[in-house]
């Protein structure tokens, strides 16, 4: 499966940091320069940098630029052992999401600014529009869940979700192929976004749990 544009940039930037080409504390090229270098859009670069910031690999300082983390061991993630789970079952990864994401949704409802809640509603609309024209809605789906993680204002939990999301990328595409799953996901996304906008933490938690449990049930049903 071909990598998404921002995933390709993330991989290449991590290699440059790990090799020492970009040392801790160094300021990176501008987004425009990175886009020209990798021959990809500024939007893809911006999304890649946002993910790298969530993983604490870079620091985005508005008005100053983007800097490599001062921690030289940051790429030796304490959860790096999870990277060996490539062969782990989709069910195991969904179970991991079931542990983390409902609480992220609850924290997001309690802590996220109203602008972030409105963005979630916009992402639910975008996913529905992409599906209506047969477009690729995978990136929007991932961004919806990552936006909730950002709104929870807990970098450690957001990092845990990022690791799980990296491992389950192919599995999420496979899940989308299950009958009616994308349509159901859009419905859940909209309801979760509304609960977050209305600051209903318990409701947001319950809906996210139901969303992921629904995927677990569908996967179990597909292998019977």
TrEMBL record:
Chain ranges of the HTH gntR-type domain: 3-71
This protein's name: FadR family transcriptional regulator
Spell out the CDD domains in the cross-references.
Answer: WHTH_GntR
Instruction: Keywords in alphabetical order, please.
Output: DNA-binding, Transcription, Transcription regulation
Gene Ontology terms for molecular function: DNA binding; DNA-binding transcription factor activity
**SMART domains associated with the record:** FCD, HTH_GNTR
Under the heading SUPFAM superfamilies, the entry gives: GntR ligand-binding domain-like, Winged helix' DNA-binding domain
């Amino acid at each position: 499966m071909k990598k998404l544009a921002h995933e390709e940039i993330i991989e290449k930037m991590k290699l440059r940091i790990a090799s020492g080409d970009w040392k801790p504390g160094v300021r990176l090229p501008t987004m425009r320069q990175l886009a020209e270098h990798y021959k990809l859009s500024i939007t893809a670069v911006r999304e890649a940098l946002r993910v790298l910031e969530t993983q604490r690999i870079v620091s985005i300082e508005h008005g100053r630029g983007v800097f490599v983390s001062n921690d030289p061991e940051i790429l030796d993630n304490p959860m790096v052992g999870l990277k060996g789970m490539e062969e782990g079952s989709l069910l195991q990864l969904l179970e991991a999401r079931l542990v983390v994401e409902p609480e992220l949704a609850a924290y997001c409802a309690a802590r996220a600014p109203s602008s972030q809640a409105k963005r979630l509603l916009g992402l639910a609309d975008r996913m529905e529009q992409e599906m209506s024209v047969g477009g690729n809605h995978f990136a929007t789906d991932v961004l919806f869940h990552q936006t909730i993680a950002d709104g929870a204002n807990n970098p450690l939990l957001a990092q845990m979700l990022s690791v799980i999301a990296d491992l389950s990328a192919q599995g999420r595409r496979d899940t989308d192929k299950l009958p009616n799953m994308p349509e159901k996901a859009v419905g859940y996304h909209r309801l979760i976004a509304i609960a977050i906008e209305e600051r209903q933490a318990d409701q947001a938690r319950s809906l996210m749990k139901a969303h992921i449990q629904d995927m677990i049930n569908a996967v179990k049903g597909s292998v019977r």
